Structure formats: C-alpha cells, structure tokens
Amino acid sequence: MWWRLALPCPAELEESLLWKLSDLGLHRHALQHAPEQRDQVTLLLWLPQPEWSSTDRSQLILTLAALAKPFGMAFPEGRWDEVADEDWSLSWKQHWQPDPVGARFLILPAWLEAPPEHRERLVIRMDPGSAFGTGSHPTTRLCLEALEARPPVGELVADLGCGSGVLGLASLGLGAEAVVSADTDSLAVRATTDNRALNEWEAARLRVVLGSLDELLQLLEGRQVDLLLCNILAPVIEALAPGFERLVSSKGRALLSGLLVDQAPRLKRVLSDLGWRVIREAEQGRWGLLEVSRSSTSSIS
Ligand SMILES: C[S@@+](CC[C@H](N)C(=O)[O-])C[C@H]1O[C@@H](n2cnc3c(N)ncnc32)[C@H](O)[C@@H]1O
User: Fold this and answer.
1) What is the distance in A from the centroid of ligand 1 to the CA of 239?
2) What string of pLDDT tens digits covers the 301 residues of the chain?
3) Ligand 1 pocket: which of 147, 213, 217, 232 to mutate (most atoms <8 Å of CB)?
4) What is the model's pTM?
5) Range(s) for CATH 3.40.50.150 in the chain?
6) One CATH from 3.30.70.1230, 3.30.470.20, 1.10.10.10, 3.40.50.150 for 130-293
7) Which residues line ligand 1 (CB under 6 A)?
8) Rounded to the nearest whole angstrom, what is the distance from the C-alpha of residue 231 to the centroid of ligand 1?
9) Residue 284 and residue 287: Cα distance in Å, rounded?
10) Distance from the CA of 83 to the center of ligand 1, in angstroms?
C-alpha cells in the first residue's frame, strides 16, 4: 500500500522540489504534464504507507512549503490518495512519453519505440531512474535547443551536473568528439553511465565522475574543453564560475541554465567580472539560459 501525493507544481518550484525530494532520499516521484499544456505540471510522489504516519506527511509538506518562501508564493495544496497495490514504477512510466525537443531531438523512454512521425529525429534513449533530466524540464530543453543551434561538432564537451546524462548524449549525437561529465549525486553518475550504455556509446566517448569541477579537471589531465554545459541552479553556477576558466579553453564557450530569468542580471554581472561575455540569451517560461564566451572574437554562428 502506498500514499500518493498529487501536488500542482508551479514552474519556479519544480527544480527546488525535485532537489529537496532527492535530498530527503525520496526518489519515487514523477512529473505529470497536462496534455497540450506543458506548463501545467503535477508532481506525483509515492510513499510506502506503513512508514508514513499523518504527522510525518504533514511534516513533509511543511518542509516542502518552505521552498516557496523565497519566491514569495503560496504553497499549492496537494492531495493524498491511498493507492492499493499500485506499482509506482509502472505509474511513473505511464506518465512519461516520447518527447520531441527542438527541431532534431527525440527523448525516448528506454522501454518505448520511436513513433513513426518522429523516426527522422535524433533519438536519445533515457532510463533516468531517479536522476534529474528526462529532457522535459524547461532548463534541459533550453540547453538541448542551444546545442542544436550551434552543434559541438568535433568538440570536447564538459557536462557539469550531468543528471541523467541527457546533455552529454545529445552532444555526442550532434558530433562532439567526447564528453566528460560530473555530478555530486551518485545516482546521477549511475544514471549517466547506464544511459551511455543504453545509447550504445563507448565508455571512452562519455566519461563520468562523482564530484564537481575539481574532479572534472582531474579527469581532463590538463586538457581544456571547447564547450561547458552547466544546468544547475543560479547560486551554484555563481559559486562554481570562478573555476570555469580553468576548465574551458580561451576560445571556448559555456551554456549555463538552471537560472530563473530574474536571476540572470546578477549572474551576468558575476560572469562579466570574471571575463565572460554573454553571446546569447534564451528563455522558456520563467527559466533562462545564458551562452557565454571567454573569447572576445567568438560570436553566434
Ligand atoms: C538541474 S539538474 C541538470 C541535469 C541535466 N544536466 C539536465 O540538464 O537535465 C542539476 C544536476 O546538478 C547536480 N549538481 C548540483 N550541484 C552540483 C555541483 N556543485 N557540482 C556538480 N553537480 C551538481 C545535481 O545533482 C543534478 O543532477
């Protein structure tokens, strides 16, 4: 027997909620997008009933509600249902469908075939387990569209905060020479490794390490990358940014997402002080992406 929480999930809270659940070790969740209205999202969370008293569940809601405070938002009201003998993982899978992104990609759940209308697309197979990054989040989509706009053909790419590995796999699909990835979450490292194998790329083409910038630098043994992908929250990007110049070659660029549009001005100032130049900005809903370059000659192609 399970408790299932259905919680309307505003875009600004989506990422924080997923992070908090992951922090709490609660990995049985899914995001349900309303058909035809992708911005209406419901978070579904399954909890084993014997372990979750009503006090525990109220406490969990209070913990999650605290995430809405920085946004000055009222926390949405959720609904708890008792679900008898429901296989949460099957339910989770039911909510996840082939997802065309941009003009070229199709994010395809590992257990499905590509629908005929999408056969021409570049398929990225995903079995994300509990790691973030099925491709449906606006920040992941922004990164995929930016990759598509300027494919990293023949480039060495770093994926910092790789989650399910989706951005690294997309880079290889677009012709990158190789990808080095890192994530502080061991589940993400496992998901990236599994998804690499699922997409039949050799281990040498997509390497992944548990950790962050320093571990990536160790993996690179003095080489610098042409392109850095970093889709993490704005404050984390800000904290990591002073290290980017060690990672990215002097002619390289970075795609930074995970920021809310209203966090962009501050991040731009920080990056500018560190010698980075914004060469492109994009947004989807309240989420933003910055494409930045170290070189004064680099421009949008
Ligand atoms: C928003 S998810 C992005 C996942 C994937 N790259 C995508 O675009 O869909 C951010 C990921 O960054 C990881 N992360 C958070 N802080 C990090 C840090 N300081 N260094 C490396 N990874 C970090 C999280 O564990 C999470 O998997």
Assistant:
1) 13
2) 889 999 998 877 887 888 788 778 787 777 776 655 656 788 888 888 888 999 999 999 999 999 888 888 889 999 999 887 655 555 656 666 788 899 999 988 888 889 899 989 999 998 755 445 566 678 888 999 999 999 999 999 999 999 889 999 999 999 999 999 999 988 789 889 999 999 999 999 999 999 999 999 999 999 999 999 999 989 999 999 999 999 999 999 999 998 989 999 999 999 999 999 999 999 987 889 999 998 665 444 4
3) 232
4) 0.77
5) 130-293
6) 3.40.50.150
7) 15, 131-133, 137, 140, 143, 160-163, 166-167, 182-185, 188, 212, 231-232, 236, 258
8) 6
9) 5
10) 32
Asked whether the beta carbons of 54 and 15 are under 8 A apart, the reply is no
Place of tokens 């571990």: 215
| Nearest alpha carbon to residue 144 among 121, 170, 179, 175 | 170
Residues comprising the chain, all counted: 301
